[in-house]
Specification:
By secondary structure, the chain is an all-alpha fold. Helices cover 78% and strands 0% of the residues.
């Protein structure tokens, strides 16, 4: 059971990590971090990355959930 949970975590977290890195690069190429908040730039980049990662992980988890057809006895993994 634990192996399936680890695999599920990697299936969801790794693509969301890559998508968050791209989203952060795109977002901060358009907006100056100092103009958004009065914090150190590294703190803004870190907060932004974890916010993007959370949003992408939720989207990946929803996709994984929708791939698992409700009538199936065995999941997609």
């Amino acid at each position: 059971m634990m192996k399936a949970q680890k695999r599920l975590a990697m299936v969801v977290l790794w693509p969301s990590f890559l998508a968050a890195a791209m989203a952060e690069g795109f977002f901060f190429s358009l907006f100056e971090p100092e103009a958004l908040w009065d914090l150190a730039p590294m703190a803004i980049y870190s907060i932004g990355f974890f916010c993007f990662w959370t949003m992408c992980a939720l989207a990946s988890m929803l996709t994984f959930y929708l791939v698992a057809v409700p009538g199936e006895h065995q999941g997609p993994l």
